[in-house]
Amino acid sequence: MEILFASNKIERLCTDMKAARKFFGGEEVLVRGLFSRINALRSADTIKDIIVQPPFRFHKLHNWKDGTGGYFAIDVKTRRDPWRIILQPLDQERQPFVPCNIDEIAMIVRIVEIEEVSKHYE
């Protein structure tokens, strides 16, 4: 799957170990978790490959950003850790799906944009 990043800062965080260590305050388990998730996204053929893996805990964000429901999150490490990777599925033209019914599009989504890595629920 192709991964786009919402900003250069997010791209650096997701591709540079040194930046990730600084961001997570040196917590190696979170750094390894982030890079593991990014590698899994890159290796996936479609978003369906991510959705079906329970450890990722892929879930919809209903009232995030623009309120359209087109954003989703996966855990950086585990459900107990507050860190999430927020992403948005994109079509072949790199545009968001409107409406974004993930059950209907999961088998065709081959591009995602990572919006942020954060303690989303805090």
- Strand order in the largest sheet: 1-5-4-3-2
Sequence of secondary-structure elements: EHHHHEEEHE
The shape, in one word, is globular
Query: How far apart are the termini?
Result: 29 Å
What structural category arises from helix and sheet content?
A: alpha+beta
Question: What can you see in these coordinates?
Answer:
The chain has 122 residues and is α+β, with helices and mostly antiparallel strands. It has one domain (2-118). The chain is 32% helix and 22% strand. The protein contains 5 helices and 5 strands. The chain has helices at residues 8-15, 17-23, 28-43, 48-51, 102-105; strands spanning 2-5, 59-61, 71-75, 84-90, 111-118. It has a 5-stranded mixed beta sheet with strand order 1-5-4-3-2, covered by helices on one side. β3 (71-75) and β4 form a beta hairpin. α1 crosses α2 (17-23). The chain is globular, with a radius of gyration of 14 Å. The mean pLDDT is 92.
Q: Key features?
A:
single chain; 122 residues; alpha+beta; five-stranded mixed beta sheet; 5 helices; 32% helix
Q: Can you give me a brief rundown of this structure?
A:
The protein has 122 residues and is α+β, with helices and mostly antiparallel strands.
